[in-house]
Write a structure and sequence with these properties.
disordered N terminus, two-stranded antiparallel sheet, globular, 61% strand, mainly beta, 1 helix, 12 strands
């Protein structure tokens, strides 16, 4: 990883780590002590796993933000936003610890047949991503909020005007595994939706 920093009071408040490659879109770390980035968007406090065989996204933008958990803690995330996305073989799983009973895993699957999942104005708040990626017409190092692509900054997110971001007209991801805190979309069409609730956790029950 290569840490990118610049002079000036604004850039001293946080650091951005960007890794554009065929293996990942990016990992953005944000220093929270000075409150350089903040969001009123509240998350449950539980991470969930997402796996897809492929995702074709258009009007892509990614920026750093902070999700506020309901217990008051802050979580630094990279927000990946797509104007529209086509997703094949989508799997989402979350593990819920139940006192005395043990772990319970809820797994949702969709888009496994001839009709893939379709999403518009899709936002994914993630802190880990593993994938093979191809970007088309990519711009790295644009200022957050200035991108003309994607659905724009998610309502509720606040970013430093000079903070680091990237954009691309389109992106192709395959063999995707990611850990996320939240997913929101203007429209989310889940063809062939299936849900399973199982006692236990691990690869046998989760998406990966």
């Amino acid at each position: 990883m290569e840490s990118l920093t610049r002079g000036g009071t604004r850039w001293k408040r946080f650091a951005v780590v960007m890794v554009p490659s065929v293996a990942a879109t990016a990992a953005i770390g944000v220093a929270l002590s000075q409150g350089a980035l903040a969001a009123s968007f509240a998350v449950s406090g539980q991470q969930f796993k997402v796996r897809t065989s492929s995702l074709e996204g258009h009007e892509f933008v990614q920026y750093g933000a902070v999700d506020a958990q309901k217990d008051g803690k802050n979580v630094p995330v990279a927000v990946s936003a797509f104007g529209r996305a086509t997703i094949h073989n989508l799997c989402q799983s979350v593990v819920v610890p139940v006192p005395v009973f043990g772990d319970v895993t809820m797994k949702l699957e969709a888009g496994g047949g001839e009709t893939p999942v379709q999403a518009k104005n899709l936002y994914i708040d993630l802190d880990h991503l593993k994938a093979d990626a191809t970007f088309h017409d990519i711009n790295i190092g644009v200022a957050a909020g200035s991108s003309k692509l994607g659905p724009g900054i998610k309502p509720g997110d606040k970013t430093d005007p000079g903070s680091f971001a990237q954009e691309a007209k389109s992106v192709e991801l395959s063999n995707v595994e990611q850990r996320a805190w939240a997913t929101t979309a203007g429209t989310f069409e889940l063809s062939g939706l299936q849900m399973n609730v199982s006692k236990g956790s691990g690869k046998k029950y989760e998406c990966y």
